[in-house]
Every structure is written in structure tokens, then in C-alpha cells.
Amino acid sequence: MRSFLANRWYLFILLLTEFLFCANDFESRNTISYGFNLPHSIKLDCEQSLRLTGQKLAFKQTFTELTLSKQIINDLKLFMPIRYAIFDDKIKNRISLGGIYKIIIKPMKFKYKTRFQRTHEKSKSPDDLFRNKLYAHFKLSKKFEPFLSCEIFHPANSSNTELNEYRLSFGTNLNLPRKKSLKLYYQYKVEDLNKNNLYEIHIIGLSLGLN
């Protein structure tokens, strides 16, 4: 039964990808990452990403991100990502601080992720945001783990009810040989909720973990 569901899920992802490639409001996100274990149970993850947009897959941005994380207790982890992003016409630097708490009720796994992030751009004031994200994972097999997630954003200088962005995602994690992993997902993103004209975009993402 689980093998049957896994095959159907994979086919659905492929058909969705083919459909979205024809849309103008489409974005492709491609990421490769590698992790290192440091002293005192600290981990360093290095990530390189490329984002393309539109039917012609024009360049949108590329970024390098380094993340330090530490497992505080079995179910709680703290992390600090630092990002250097290059766009066509600008460069942005971003630093974040957050935590992840997880609950496992087999075969389900739930995670809550929260962070504060500050983005710097030359000649502009820093942009401060709070982000909160909920995940639900279902382990179909040792290799196949579908997931759903919802993330909301709001400016740090506003009330908690003033959201300016949300993201809804679903996809799957695939465990590959030699400790490698692959994540394939679809994301629906809506920005500028506090403005008259919303910005909506459909995203297909592919992430390769090398360990």
C-alpha cells in the first residue's frame, strides 16, 4: 500500500511540474547543500542556491548560506543562518536566529520552526521579519517521506495579526544511497498582503543534500 501511494505521489509531482513550467508566474529553486560536524555538537551546513523565473527561466537570484545549529535537547534545535544573495541589480545580506521543535507520533512527524531575520541592502534601512512555520511529515517507507507545510511572515515592527506573506508547500523527501537526500516540492507563495495588489507565484523546488 505504501509503495502504491509513493508511486502516485511521485507521478503527481511530475505532472504538476510540467504544468507550472508553462506559467508566467513560475519560479524554479535549485539547491545543493553539505554539512560538517564541528566541536561541541555544533553543525555547519553550507548551501548554494539558484533561482530562475518565468517561462524562459530567467535569472532571479543566487545565494550562499551558512547555517550553524546545535541540538539543545532531543526535540529542540537552535540555528543561525547567514546569507549572501546576489540579484541582477542588488546584493542583500541576511542573518537569522531561530529554533525548531519536533514531535514524533509514528508514522507522523510534526515540526514547528520560528525565526527572526534581518536583511540588509545598501542605502536602505534593515528589513526585520518574524517567520513561523509548521510541518507535517508522513514516513511511507525508509526512502520516501511526503510532507506539508505552512509558513507566515510579519514585520517585526507590527502587531502579530498584520501578516504580509504566507507560503503553502507540499512535496517529498527521498533518501538516496551513501547518505544523500533529495527534496522535491511545490510551493504557493503570496506576498504584499498589506497592499492593494497581491503578488502570487508558483514555485517548484529541488534540493540535493550530499550528506
Which key features would you list for this structure?
11 strands, mainly beta, 1 helix, 211 residues, Porin, eleven-stranded mixed β-barrel
Strand order of the largest sheet: 1-2-3-4-5-6-7-8-9-10-11
What CATH calls the topology is Porin
Q: What is the total tally of β strands?
A: 11
| Content of β-strand | over 45%
Q: Any low-confidence stretches, pLDDT <50, length ≥5? A: none
Q: Which class in CATH terms?
A: Mainly Beta
What pattern of helices and strands is seen along the backbone? Answer: HEEEEEEEEEEE
Question: From the coordinates shown, what is the CATH architecture?
Answer: Beta Barrel
Structure description:
The protein has 211 residues and is mostly beta strands. It has one domain (2-209): Porin (Beta Barrel), CATH 2.40.160.40. Helices cover 9% and strands 66% of the residues. It has one helix and eleven strands. An eleven-stranded mixed β-barrel has the order 1-2-3-4-5-6-7-8-9-10-11. A hairpin with a 2-residue loop joins strand 3 (58-73) and strand 4 (76-87). The longest helix is centred in the first third of the chain and has 19 residues, at 2-20. The protein starts with a helix and ends with a strand. 3% of the residues are buried. The mean pLDDT is 88.
